[in-house]
Amino acid sequence: MSGVLIMAEQRRGELRPVSLELIGAAQALRRSGDSVAVAILASSPNQFIEPLKLAGVDEIVAIKVESAEFDPDTFEAVAAALITERAPDVVLVAHSVDSFGYAPALAARLGLGFASDVFKVERIEGELIATRGGYGQKVNVEVDFPGHSTVLLALRANVFKPPEQAGSPRITEIAPPPLSSRSVGRGFIELAGGDDVDMTQAEFILTIGRGIGEESNVAQFKELADVVGATLGCSRPIADAGWLPKSRQVGQSGKTAGACKLYIAMGVSGAIQHLAGMKHVATIVAVNSDAGASIFGVAKYGIVGDIFEIAEELRRNF
Amino acid sequence: MKILVAVKQVAALDEDFTIRADGRDVDEEFLLRDLNEWDDYSLEEAVKIKEAASQPVEVVVITVAPEHADEALRKCLAKGADRAIRVWDEAVEGSDPIAIARVIAAAARRESPAMLFAGVQSSDQAFASTGVAAAAFLEWPHAAVVTSLKLSPGAQSAVFRRELEGGLLEEVEIHCPAVLTIQLGINTPRYASLRSIKQAAAKPIEVKSLSDLGLNTADVGEAGSASRVRRMVIPDKGRAQLIEGDVAAQARRLAEIIREFQGSAP
Amino acid sequence: MSRPDAVTRILFEAFPTAEVRLFYVIAYTAIAIFFYGVYVQVRKYGRGAPLRLEGGLGRRLADMAAKVFSHRTVERRDPAAGGAHRLIFYGFLLLFLGTATITLQYDILEPLFGIRFWQGPFYLVFSLVLDLAGIALLGGLIYMMYRRGWLKLPKLDYARPDRAPGDADFDRPQYRREDWAFLWTLLVIGFTGYLLEAARLVWLHDRPDVWDTRWWSPVGAALAALLEAAGLGAHGGGVLRLGLWWFHGLLALVFIALIPFTKVKHIFTAAASLMVRDPRAAQRLPRVPENAQTPGIARITDLNWKQLLNLDACTKCGRCHEACPARAVGAPLSPRDVILSLREFASATLESASLPAAADLDVHGKSPGQISMETLWSCRTCMACVEICPVAVEHVPIIVQMRRKLVEDGAMDPLLAKTLQTIHKSGNSFGESKRKRGSWSKPLPFRIKDARKEPVQVLWFVGDYASFDPRNQKVTQTFAALLHQAGVDFGILYDGESNAGNDVRRVGEEGLYEVLAGANIAALEGASFDTIVTTDPHSYNTIRNEYPDFGGTYEIQHYTSFMRRLFAEGKLKVTQPVKLRATFHDPCHLGRFNKGYEAPRELLKLLGCELVEMGRCRDNSFCCGAGGGRIWIPDPVGAEKPAQNRIREAAAIPGLDVYVVSCPKDLTMFEDALKTTGNEGKFVVKELIELIREAVPAPRAEAAPA
Fold first, then answer.
1. Is residue B190 included in any domain, yes or no?
2. Chain C 85-104, residues with CB within 8 Å of chain B CB atoms
3. What CATH class is the domain C287-411?
4. What is the per-residue pLDDT for B142?
5. What is the ipTM, given to two decimal places?
6. Cα separation of B30 and B13, whole Å?
7. Which residues of B touch C435 (CB under 8 A)?
């Protein structure tokens, strides 16, 4: 068993950036002599090859499959074939919605070692040790994989750094194994509006969470956001309750606020799904009355206090 | 027609928790147990299908856990599940989601449901794997992060939407029977009054052992798992630099941070 | 031949026998209809759930008689109506007794035993009394007509907040028609009675024992003079008398026959309702019986017979409608209309020979007669309605029991459902760990005894808000410091204490209440103490009034009584009087529920404050809006909140310095309302404990908590 196999992700004609992070992570895991291969599945895989030509990639495996978009049976069958043929000792996928759909099945079927939402990987005396969160991200759990010669790891997004330099890997084109897919995609739907706000472009976001209490309190935070020049965002429970349109939801399932540099979270506890969407932000300020809220573990600055009082005082400064 | 819903009694950590002596888990006295939040939604989805169906639909919940999980099962029975199954054996201790999935798949083979639901993930360990791994053992079609579902009991296929990153949905049609992992917000879970939970105590919980399901100890525990916990560590407490002072001082500092950012922005 | 001692009125004088017989046939028919009507009503009550009354019937009868004859419940908050109704009541009563007396002699005593007493001086005094009674009756009726027709009182406006204009039962013109018909009928009966009297006098002008004694019926005599002056002769008087006799008689008999079918039945139902009242109606709610099919009230037949009787006792006086804080801020709830809707529903379904199908007995919903969820969830269980109702209708227990059904169905605001689940999980509504319940005590310079482990004299039941809400924690710390300073031997239960359950019960989650009460009682049973003191009126109410039903009977005081005693015993002394103009807001659960009005006022006086009362004070205190679980239910965006309404009332007091509360929820609600009504800076909201601390400063050696 040797080498690292990476399953890249693409969607709607674009390579998902997390794929490059996987390449970065692979560099820490490769042993000398190991080869790092990146597999890309699409109906026209060639469009995704250029961005994958990074330093540290030895081979790009392009597989032309029937469906243009992600399909669990397809990914599982192709990955299984690649693993069986090449016997890598590490397989890297993203901990993403797509991989939720096939990675555990792949691990179960092939009897692989497996851990998901991994944010740290290392080799200690040759042993692969992965670290993930436990009990709602309140503890770090180190796991190993005794007896498994190939280990599948789903890595957390926005943690590992992609390589900076370009590279010149060899390109291999492979036909997929015979497979029949038991589901078929019928198209994408953008989250219906509300307002035209584009969270993906916002550089300064003020997010409100369950801590605001009732719907009637939303207005004052909207006002605050306007006054300080921020875009108002919210966590999932607020959007689910209909207090703000879904277009304002930030977090794993909400808009990825990729351009955000300053993020103020008020009354947001920091549930894993929310944090996953915000961890990349340079400056996070958390305001919460609960000193033990998870978000304080991620934020750069923290204020333990009453969000209404802070909001009011903050207004006075503008 | 039967819908099987796999549920989990998860554990949250109480104040000032400590790690067990062997370093591989948290001290049990600090574990606050409750039904997994995702399971409220997957169970509710199954019960809604049952209530809307013109033919009789049985909703069965199953969990792999020791006796303390009966409380969570009772809550499910109060919320509309018809039967509850709990599988346990000492050997299951130390199982990871893959091993648990093997047990659930074995139980599903005996129950022969038309669909298997699970939550996207559990709020404690967040592996997001059990449901889909069980699908592999069953060799059933599967999909994850279902945010809306159109299912007629007994139909050949179902149409659902899965919730992707960045606020996007994809509509998919899948052959049935299938395994679906259900996402928060798909419905509004009903409230189970204390009275109904107490009355649900009258409904029996079937306890099964590994042998009842045709499994042996090698299928579970560490031996049957895809990973093993070496140790648990309490991470360094919060990286956040706390802004001290009274409310006015804190707000002033925050305003400063905002202005700094705005000053540096083009 | 006239003998003054034999003067009397000959009944049926000059009537042909056939007419007399006709009269008796009609009379007996009217009475039969009356009794049939009573039977239908009683059968209706019998179709409700059973209930066993506590307390002896004799005592209840005496209480009821006292209330009815003194009319004190009718004159509360409306002395004019009370006075007018007294006139009507006594007038009608005397006139009725008058007729009964005549019947007694004429139909029973005389024919059977030859006894005659209605004659001579007795007869004359009798006539005078009845004439005066008639004046009282007519006077009262005329005032009531003026009140209804001219004053346009808002509480007599039947437009209801839980329906929209255009709904079938939005405005109820049939009620107004009935009200006026009642007034006019009685008025006409009364007036024709006088006219009849006058006509008889004119007719019998030539009979000295009639004419010479006529001024014993002064009104009749005066009218007779007018009639004669208008040219009426003896013969004409006779004809008029005959005609009026039949008119007056038939009208009165029709009136009697229709009593059980109309508003007039309140004569009986109001008295009966007062007799079967529960003096602890909203303070102590009933348990769910073990064998109940569904908890609470789902169908009209789930109401017990007393509640069905209550529905019929309501006279639409509107006092509850006026007092309700939810109605005052535009919520879709009027206690009056809950009762009237259910009454209409009961009449429509329970008065026919057979009962309708179960599905048609459902009282929840939006059809006429049904009560909607929005209405039920608007209630703050502040008890203003129950407390003011002159006829002892018990609205709050009906609302709570209907909520029990809603809770069972999960039909509630999602935030409320979440809070109930949180309370179940962590024993408090804040979702904090049980272990942190006593954390507020950590900054104090002294240790508070753990009542679970060591005996104490005073066990302080702290409560949720006082333990976890940051603003209230300051008050809690201050109280601890004061107790310590006074040398009181006290302790708390730390994590052994859970939410007392008062509001959980009033939300209708009886199952959760039983869990909480059970847990608290177990903790209390395991501790050793003489008395319980609490700073939370909600906990006070439920521990005092409801825990005994669950096996926990303890002596408990609210801190205001306890502190008053500490001052009286000299354990605390005022050294720096607080010379502020203050107003006191009576907390619902201390004041109206448990009559605890005086202790806080005595304390304020002791502290040196100048107390200025708000218009709505003591029993009429206006709820802050947090009760009944409403603090866990979001208010509609943009609507006024009860607390804002109340702060505006206080803001009208010139020169007000401080608005004093003695309940943790009040503190939270009113501080918020102070800001949102724009009154911040004009006066402050303070807990009484904080004022005590200002007047009784901490000794220099210990630092007071920050």
1. yes
2. none
3. mainly alpha
4. 97
5. 0.91
6. 6
7. 14-16
